[in-house]
Specification:
There is one protein chain. The protein is of the alpha/beta class. It has 2 domains: about 10-215, 2-enoyl-CoA Hydratase, Chain A, domain 1 (Alpha-Beta Complex), CATH 3.90.226; about 215-265, Orthogonal Bundle (Lyase 2-enoyl-coa Hydratase, Chain  A, domain 2). Helix content is about 50%, strand content about 15%. The protein is built from 11 helices and 9 strands. It has helices at about 35-50, 70-75, 85-105, 125-130, 155-165, 165-175, 180-190, 200-215, 215-230, 235-250, 250-265, and strands at about 10-15, 15-20, 55-60, 110-115, 120, 135, 140-145, 180, 195. The strands form 2 sheets. Strands 1-2-3-4-6-9 form a 6-stranded mixed beta sheet, sandwiched between helices. It is globular and about 65 Å long. This is Enoyl-CoA hydratase/isomerase family protein. Pathway: Lipid metabolism; fatty acid beta-oxidation. InterPro entries: ClpP/crotonase-like_dom_sf, Ech1-like, Enoyl-CoA_hydra/iso, Enoyl-CoA_hydra_C. Keywords: Fatty acid metabolism, Isomerase, Lipid metabolism.
């Protein structure tokens, strides 16, 4: 189950919505070692135990996140450093481990919504593109910072960002390290909408989350699975998979409840997703 306290996050669950807040504003919510370990633990705990129907991720302080904490780059290296081939193999696996911290957002059965404000830099771009929907405040700005520190982004920006914005924009941002403001982010499709203040942003995103949480969880997770599947497969393959999905999980009782609730002018009552067994039988 969820812990009472985390180093890099604050977690609350209300109205079937889990709200994960980055909680290191004094460090611009940079992504330290605790961040990389705690985020997948929190998300998988919520998802595997069906603790919520939607996850909202936001931040605290002046900025959403300034990206990777420099301590991650300066961590002590093992004695085998003299052998660059051995070190290269170890580095590759370390990168895969960091990548998996954001893969959990895409793999989660429930939608993951992002509320962005202030600076959204470097690793924060990797993070928000692994979610389902993004909104921001009018003061937000976005930057693929890695090129500005002489490296290539490697945690997920490139395979994911070009799904949401035109390839030309991905390349311009990746090659130049320029910032784009909230208006441009909305224009090119990175965010759905812009709010004037952080308070209005959270209220709006949480309202959307509660609306999603009121829908049939099985239909919502089916929509996420099939939209993501269609992104990576042909139309014919996706239509076939949709047919298989509904062959197994078409839910007449859930649909009957939806019709009855509409007729009776009340909110429908749907079963939550089942917890997932994470230990061997």
């Amino acid at each position: 189950m969820l812990k009472d306290k985390y180093e890099a996050f604050k977690v609350t669950i209300e109205d079937k919505v889990a709200h994960i807040q980055m909680s290191r504003p004094e460090a611009m919510n940079t992504m330290n070692k605790a961040f990389w370990n705690e985020l997948p633990e929190i998300v998988r705990t919520i998802d595997n135990n069906a603790l919520a129907r939607v996850i909202v991720i936001s931040s605290t302080g002046k900025h959403f996140s300034a990206g990777m904490d420099t301590s991650v780059f300066t961590s002590p290296r093992p004695a085998a450093e003299h052998d660059r081939y051995v070190m290269a193999e170890a580095f590759r696996l370390n990168v895969k481990a960091i990548q998996s911290s954001f893969n959990c957002l895409e793999d989660a059965r429930v939608p993951v919504l992002f509320a962005c404000h202030g600076a959204v830099i470097g690793g924060a771009i990797d993070m928000i593109t692994a979610g389902d929907i993004r909104w921001c405040t009018k003061d937000a700005y976005f930057c693929i910072m890695e090129i500005n520190i002489a490296m290539t982004a490697d945690v997920g920006t490139f395979p994911r960002l070009q799904r949401y914005i035109p390839e030309g924009w991905v390349k311009e941002l990746a090659y130049t390290g320029r910032k784009i403001d909230a208006a441009k982010a909305k224009e090119i499709g990175l965010v759905n909408d812009i709010y004037d203040t952080h308070e209005e942003l959270l209220a709006g995103v949480l309202a959307t989350a509660r609306e999603i949480a009121s829908k049939n969880p099985l239909a919502v997770t089916g929509s996420k699975v099939l939209i993501n599947y269609g992104r990576d497969h042909t139309t014919a393959e996706t239509l076939d998979y949709i047919g298989l999905w509904n062959t197994a999980m078409f839910p007449p009782p859930h649909m009957a409840e939806a019709f009855a609730a509409r007729a009776e002018k009340r909110e429908p009552v749907y079963p939550d997703l089942a917890p997932i067994r994470t230990e061997p039988m």
